[in-house]
Amino acid sequence: MDWDDLRIFLAVARAESLSGAGRRLAMDASTVGRRIARLEGAVGAALFLKTPTGYQLTAEGSRLMAPAEAAELAATAATEAVTGEAGLTGQLRIGAPDGCANYLLPQVARDLCDAHPGLEIQIVALPRVVNLTRREADMAITVSPPDAGRLMVQRLTDYHLHLAGHADYLACHPPLRTLADLRGHRMISYIPDMIFDRELDYLSATGVEGAQISSNSVAVQMQAVRAGAGLGIVHDFALPFAPGVVPVLTDRIALTRSFWLVRHADDRASRRLTLLAEALAQGIRAEVARLEGPRPSARDGRA
Questions:
Q1: CATH classification of 87-155+260-292, choosing from 3.40.390.10, 3.40.190.10, 3.40.640.10, 1.25.40.10?
Q2: Where is each HTH lysR-type domain found (predicted)?
Q3: β-sheet bridge partners, residue 139
């Protein structure tokens, strides 16, 4: 059985579509389909069932997953044994919540690519937890540690958030001295039923029941705050990217959260991914510290 056919089989099983597998493999979907048909002919069984929601594994396909993944690990180990330190090349796909993806990972990716010119980094910013079991990414950054699955979890660093508004908005609205003063202000936050992790429920810290402007994207929320649309809980590490946005009520509203690095347990044997995980962790920690700088001082919201 050809390893390259197994590689394509794994991509389809994880993407649950020919087109998704093709994008990951840089291959035309019709070619992926032909290769799967060839593999099915070789094993004498259908490996996938095409359904309205995508390609689902048959019983025979499910039985092939474990040996295919073992072959994948063996191929990776063989490559790393030959390349050694120079193996920090090729593609690395990182899944992350969009706050981290927008404000931290671009600089970290730059530094990693500078240090390892043969490395290609893909940043997947999703408003949900990245599924490592389906290999949507090689590793993921999350805002809370997962409690299920065959995963390796490493705490990266704490980060901080504060209520903030643009100076122009604050100059035109009532001053902020207590939490009760928030009733006279427009709030910006997450869409409640699209909060995919309890750690993202920031609005509850303000005591305000609802937001007038909401989005499932941290970056969109920050842009709304920057546009003077209202007040929102923002990451301290995002403040350098938003001139004019200043923290308010810092003595009353101060949140601390953590980033976690998550990898599939089967990747433990990969020296390449372990080295890249260590470099990514160091980069995230350094970038959070650099961008947060000194803790923000309080401001009452008056011009």
A1: 3.40.190.10
A2: 1-58
A3: 94, 263
